[in-house]
Design brief:
The protein has helices at residues 17-26, 36-39, 41-44, 52-63, 83-103, 128-148, 165-174, 198-209, 240-250, 263-274, and strands at 3-7, 31-34, 68-73, 107-111, 151-155, 180-185, 213-218, 220-224, 227-231, 255-258. It has 275 residues and is of the alpha/beta class. Helix 1 runs parallel beside helix 4 (52-63), helix 4 crosses helix 5 (83-103) and helix 5 (83-103) packs parallel to helix 6.
Length: 275
């Protein structure tokens, strides 16, 4: 048993909450990962107009079509090198945590970002002092999450300060809270050299950290020019049946988010997962 979830911005031609709700219902989707700045950038003006009333509007409109918000996205550069910008990012994230309940979302999620302002790749991200800074940021976010009783979901990735399972475990040890969870994307943590071990890696992670995994991103891929290239589910080489079996075994009811599977491929992917 899993909660099949899609990113709201993977639906095409969506300009109203009602349209989003109808599109999700038509594709037999009952749970969304909602990134407001991507689906409705004018509505929230880069996160500056988040409110209780807006949350209720989303919740009521979506629920009228049997759709819920499983994850509220506030994907940001949590480790922004400019401390003033970082303070603004943390404040925005806390505002999401404050309002998540009105959207009906149990968590707010983000990756960890980069020491480069525009989120680019640099090996500087892997330094220990950067990781220690990240711990302090996550402590601040989790304290806010505890106050508003909303989970902070952090997603590791190979190019980010949180780029290995070992560091993920260290983060969880450094911030021991029920309000810190991991958004695990197994494709985010493989390379062209390790992708054949993806199923075993996923099993090992869920066996060790299953109780801390609050959502799972399911992202198919091809290996081209020695790089991982994301593709819609079914168009790549991911062994999704074995991986979903692992998720169900260790984390029943987990939010399984289709990533990079957009509108034309969505209904087919849902049918496969339900089958």
């Amino acid at each position: 048993m899993i909660n099949i979830t899609v990113r709201g911005h993977d639906f095409e031609e969506v300009d109203t909450i009602e349209t989003l709700a109808k599109k999700a219902q038509a594709n037999n989707i009952h749970s969304l990962q909602l990134a407001l700045t991507k689906s409705f950038p004018d509505l929230v003006e880069k996160n500056t107009r988040l409110s209780t009333g807006l949350g209720y509007k989303f919740k009521n409109t979506l629920q009228a079509h049997q759709v819920d918000v499983g994850i509220l996205s506030c994907y940001s550069n949590l480790i922004h090198p400019d401390t003033k910008e970082r303070e603004k990012i943390i404040a925005t994230f806390c505002d999401y945590l404050k309002n998540a309940r009105y959207f009906g979302a149990p968590m707010v999620a983000s990756e960890t970002g980069s020491v480069l302002p525009q989120m680019g790749f640099t090996e500087e991200n892997f330094k220990e002092d950067v990781f220690q800074e990240l711990i302090e940021v996550v402590k601040e976010l989790v304290a806010c999450g505890e106050h508003y009783q909303t989970i902070v979901g952090i997603e590791p990735g190979t190019h980010h300060p949180l780029h290995t399972i070992e560091k993920t475990k260290r983060l969880l040890e450094a911030v021991p809270s029920d309000y810190l969870g991991i958004v695990y994307d197994s494709t985010n943590l493989i390379t062209a050299d390790t992708y054949k071990d993806q199923v075993d890696m996923t099993e090992a992670v869920f066996k060790e950290l299953g109780d801390k995994i609050v959502a799972f991103h399911l992202k198919d891929y091809l290996v081209e020019d020695h790089k991982i290239k994301p593709v819609p589910l079914g168009e790549g080489v991911i062994d999704y049946k074995k991986i979903i079996a692992i998720v169900e075994k260790y984390c029943p009811g987990c939010f399984v988010v289709l990533e990079q599977t957009k509108d034309p491929y969505m209904k087919r992917a849902v049918e496969w997962l339900e089958g």
